[in-house]
Structures are given as C-alpha cells and as structure tokens.
Amino acid sequence: MFDSDQPDTEHLIQRFERMMKEENVRFFDVEEFEHITEYYLETGRYKKALHAIDLASSQHPHVASFPLKRAQYLVAMDKIELAERELDRAESLDPTNFEMLIARGTIASKQGLHSQAIRLFKSALENAEEPADIYPMIAAEYQSLGRFEEAVKFLKMAIYEFQDDELLLYNIAVCFDMLNNGEKAVEFFSQFIDSNPYNEIAWYHLGITYSKMNVFEKAIWALDYALVIDDSFTAAYYEKARVLERMGLFEEAAETLRASFESDEPTGYSYYRIGNCYRQLGKQDEALRAFKHAVQLDNELDEAYLELALIYLDQERFYESIHHIKKAVTLDSDNPDYYVIAADIYKRVGMMLEAEESYKSILRLGFHEPDIFIDYAELLLDLDQVEEAMKMLQEGLSFNPESNELYAVLAGYLFSVDEREEAFQILQDGMEVSPDVGEAIINYFPHLMDDHELNQVIKKFRP
Fold first, then answer.
1. pLDDT tens digits, 206-227
2. Please, what's the b/e burial string for 438-463 (b: 16 or more CB within 10 A of its CB; e: otherwise)?
3. Given 26, 108, 130, 387, which residue has the most CB atoms within 10 angstroms?
4. Gene3D superfamilies, per this entry (predicted)?
C-alpha cells in the first residue's frame, strides 16, 4: 500500500506524468511502478493505473505483481475471464504468491463458489504477510454459506487484530443474530468491552443485543455508555429511543430523539419518530407539528404524509386529509395499506367513486384479505350495484375459501334482498366449512336473529 505522505510520492508521480505527457518512455524500477500503480488504483484513476501496469509489465516482464494487479482491477470490473488469464500469467511467474490466491478466491466468491473461495483464502494464509487481512474474507464466505459459527470464529480472530474495525463488530453481531444466540453475543461483547471499555460501537451492539432479548433496562444501560463515550453517536440515540418506545416510555423516547439534534442535523425521519411518540401519548397537536416538520425536511417521507392524513381525518379536516393521503399514495403506489386508508377517507367524505378506485388498486396489487372484499362489496351496495357486490364477495371466497366472514356477509346480503334459496345454500356451504359461520352471520346481521328458518339451519350444524 502506498503512503501519500512519503516525501518521494509527489516527485515520483510528477516524473511518471511528465513522461506520459512527453510520450518519452523512461525506466522505473519495480518498487517505483508498484508505488505508482497503487497510487492510481487507490485514488480511482484507473486509466492511468492500467497504463502504468502495462508499462511496468513491458519493462519488468518476469515480475508477477503487475499481471496480478491487472487481474485485481479486472475482477473489480467483473471481467472475470480476462482476470483469470492474467492470474494464469502471474502464477506462472510466482506460483506461491498469496495475493494470486486471494484474487482467485475473490473470483470464486463472485461466481457463488463460496466453498472454493474458502479453500483458496485459507491457502493464502500460509504465505500471507498479514494473515489477519484474510480472516474477514473467509468469514464473509462462511456467512454466504449460512455457516455463521465458522464465520464468528474468523471474525473474532480478525477483531483482536483490528479492534477499532466497526464493520467487523457489526458482522459479529449479525452472525450471533442469525444464530439466534443472544447469550453468546452478550458474552462476546462484554468480554470485548472489558479489554476495550471506550469502544462505543461495542457498547452499542451490546445494547441492541439486550433489546432483542427484551432485557430493556440493560439495553438502555449499554446504550447510555455508548453515548457517554460519544455524545454525537446518532445511531445510539435512535436505538435508545426505540427501546424506550418498546417500554412504553414515549415521552422519554421523544426527548432522546430531540437530544440527537445537539450533535446532528434533524431529519425528516427523526421528526416522524417523534410524531409517533406524541400520537401514542394522545398529544395530537404536538404530533401534528412533528409530522409537519418531517415532511418539510423530507418531502418524500410517505409515512409522515400518512400520519398527517390520519390526524386530519380524526379532526374532520377532510380536505387536508385527502391531500395528504394522495401524497402518500403517490410516493408509495405499491403499498396496499395506503389504499385501504384512502378508501376509508373517501367513503367518510362521500367520494364513493374515488373509494372504488382505491379498492381496485388494492386488488391489482394482489392484496386479497377477506376484509377488503367485504368493504368493497359494502361500497358497491351503497352505489346500488347489488349484483356487482355479490360477485365481489364470491370472488373473495375464491381467494379465501375458509373465511367465515365472507360466507356470513354474502349469505346475509342475499337474505336482505330476499334471495333466500341462494342465501341458505351459501350459509350451508359455509357451515360445512365451519359452524362458526352461523355465529358470524348473526354478528353481521343482528336482525336475522328472529328468522326461525335460519336458526334451524344454524342449530343443525351446531356441534
């Protein structure tokens, strides 16, 4: 790896670029070329890096590191076949080069050959100057195979070499989570903290682990330590607020989110979370202000527009409610829940055709819950589309053949329009599926309780 702070770096790069500009080939030794190529690769100037590699290969044709560097670049560009050719060349020049094995392992990983990648990476360990650099690569392959215990083993080996590596700690937490082993996670992070008491990331993951184990008081304790170490640790504020919400301490959760503003700019999402806390506390005015802040900071935050629509609906400010539910639907047109709420709002204000379009959108999205068909049928009846309402309930039964509610509502509507023969057939079909259909039809249509013939059928199927 090059060191851009070395005094010769700037002079070396200037010499090389002057040579390219003058188109006058000059000699550079192997170490100089390695330094030049590393500089260009790590600063993202790939065209110059490749030019340097080509020139280096021509001046030093028996040095393996240059075809190897070209291969590493080609692997990153997903040009696997070309990369393998360069690796073959590098291997012919230096069969024991561990970097060649790493490159082959990376290719195997990209091809989904994770077991092969592991074998190659482990072989590279034998000659590697810094074996700890390879441990995370092996762990990643084990994670891809779902072998999380083996992944943890190599991640632990790596973290004790690179104790400030946040990604390693994150992956250890992920592996323990996938193993559903909170106790082992607590044990690891506690031991790691004993050696690294000021590592806020470790405290943070310990807090998350306790939270997932529903040990909320200890979760708060660990997250507070993370914040003592780094009072600008935004993720820790958010996680602490989440734990407080789960504890039902919504006022404290809102205060925690606001505390994060002292070190970080507020976001639309943070105000959205604060608004939800106030909603839970029944503080509608404070919630309304928070959700307004949320959409001002992030005008694409559909969840906040939804909450504004619901608050305005509760306040019977229907125009504002419709405006905001439309915005939410526009931002996330594939969310069936938004159309359900939109349909309810439209029905409340008498916009029946708009409500019908919402139900059509829900069904187009493949959302076929019984309640949707029941509510849609009710809307169609309000529009005097009786036949279409019955068809809608029949369609609902085709998707939900064991739904007590759909049998009950369809039969009840047929009784209501005096189609008794068909109503009794539907009722009996439903009672054969579940005797509870009889109770359901009475719950939906209490006036049918006095229908003697209906009661006889229900009694016949009652266990």
1. 999 999 999 999 999 999 999 9
2. bebbbeebeebeebeebeebbeebee
3. 108
4. Tetratricopeptide repeat domain
Q: Residue 173 contacts by C-beta under 8 Å, 6 or more apart in sequence?
A: 185, 189, 205, 208, 209
Count other Cβ atoms within 10 Å, centred on residue 204.
Answer: 27
Backbone angles phi, psi at 247, to 5 degrees: -85, -5
Distance CA 113, CA 119 (A): 10
- Cα 337 to its chain centre, rounded Å, is 19
Asked if 34 and 24 count as a contact pair (C-beta separation under 8 A), the reply is no
pLDDT of residue 1: 43
Which pTM value belongs to this model? 0.76
Quick one: tokens of 124? 């590279």
Q: Would the CA dihedral through 289, 294, 299, 303 be positive or negative? A: negative
Spatial CA neighbour of 56 closest among 78, 77, 41: 41
Rounded-to-integer distance, Cα 274 and Cα 290, Å: 6
Dist CA 435 CA 408 (whole Å): 11
The DSSP code for 282 is T
Q: Copy the structure tokens of residue 235.
A: 């993720």
